[in-house]
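User: Hey, my collaborator sent me this sequence without any context and asked if I could get a structure. I don't really work with proteins. Can you help?
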Amino acid sequence: MKKILGKIRRACDDYTMIQDNDKIAVGFSGGKDSISLIYALKLFQRFSPNKFELEAITVDPGFENMNLDAAKKFLKEIDVPYTIIKTEISKIVFDERKESNPCSLCSKMRRGALNDEAKKRGINKIALGHHLDDGISTLFLSMFYEGRINTFKPVTYLDRTDITTIRPLIYISEKSIIESVERNSLPVLKSPCPVDGKTKREFANEIVRDLGGKVPDFKKKMLKAMQNKEQTQLWFKPESLEKE
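Assistant: No problem. I've predicted the 3D structure and written it out in structure-token form, which is a compact way to encode the shape of the chain:
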């Protein structure tokens, strides 16, 4: 956990993620990423140069097999206030809309519910558990399915809600998070989603894992590439050709 805390501090310093008097809510699914994030931020509170409040919010999509008892117990033990928002997102996405690509709509609706609750509670920042592998796989997804070179930003301000989204785990690999979960015996909730592990995202994750085992320092190099905007060399057309 010491190594993870060091990388969280570096990410916070590099991108000014946390400032004095912030009220931060972790979007808490109970999975390995969000539980690692809430646990690490609780420890980070002790020595962070900027003082901040911390709580957890879960958007319950309405899956019948979703049991949050272990999450409630864990968050009570580490003294983190916890809010659960009940929704019918799963019914809308799977039963009514019958989405062929349910992740996009589900994510959008969950994010909207999370932002609305945060706004009501006077929270100014939402922390999400996206890590380095997620950043790389998002880049690949954008290239493969959208024809864009794009990934999420470490910090995003939403003017509609006046809420800033931060991602303190961006320098941390998935492997490090898994090791930390096991070492600290964190009670991970298995995803109740019926398409878990069967999505385009999982396809991109498999590519990241495969390349990580074949290319030396693959993730370090990908991190450098995502930060290296000054040396991007792509096929930009001259303005004269763009107008034709």
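In plain terms: The radius of gyration is 19 Å. You can pass these tokens on to your collaborator as they are.
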